[in-house]
């Protein structure tokens, strides 16, 4: 997996993620700060998300590394590619029952509660913490990024992949936070119409990659 592709995935995926993270970015504390402090605070918030994505990349990299050692990298790549394509076509999301069984509902609820508490505080450190927590909230395109990270087959490269993914989301998120009127709803909807095609293209790439790995190994 070419790790620099993570930048493109993050950039285009960020227009989809604005729908969920946008309200948080717009409501961040410090709206009345002077320009440099305002920009610095928003950068801290976004760097918090990047740090969380990077840590998730390292964590999921353990799975990819284990699959690589077990000789399952080909199967994993094909499986994840198919999963992304099916998810993009049918907008499949984990059912409430499964989220309840896995404890995800409780986890996300606790994350949201902690974010709300941080909004009552002031200071630049608060913005970093909100970003760190925000990175834990569910997002379809973060899952796509993690799928790409896993297929690197390396813990370190998986972490770097997700760091680049996070950096790719910053332009749109900074624009949303500092100049929300610039990204109009109409323009965002147009881009969102292309997001499933991007996901499908990435899924196809993972499938082809898995097939190529199999041919090389044989």
Topology diagram in text:
Layout: H1 5-26, H2 35-69, H3 73-90, H4 96-101, H5 104-119, H6 124-134, H7 140-150, H8 155-178, H9 185-217
Helix pairs in contact: 1-7, 1-8, 1-9, 2-6, 2-7, 2-8, 3-9, 5-6, 7-8
Protein described:
- With 218 residues, the protein is an all-alpha fold.
- 81% of the residues lie in helices and 0% in strands.
- The protein contains nine helices and no strands.
- It has helices spanning 5-26, 35-69, 73-90, 96-101, 104-119, 124-134, 140-150, 155-178, 185-217.
- Helix 1 (5-26) packs across helix 8.
- The longest helix has 35 residues, at 35-69.
Features of the shown structure:
218 residues; mainly alpha; 9 helices; 81% helix
Largest sheet: none
Give the low-pLDDT segments. Answer: none
Q: Strand share of the residues?
A: under 5%
Query: Structural class per helix/strand content?
Result: mainly alpha
Q: First CA to last CA: what distance?
A: 19 Å
Oligomeric state of this protein? single chain
> What is the overall shape?
globular
Number of strands: 0
Percent range of helical residues: over 70%
Mean pLDDT: 83
**What's the Cα radius of gyration?**
18 Å
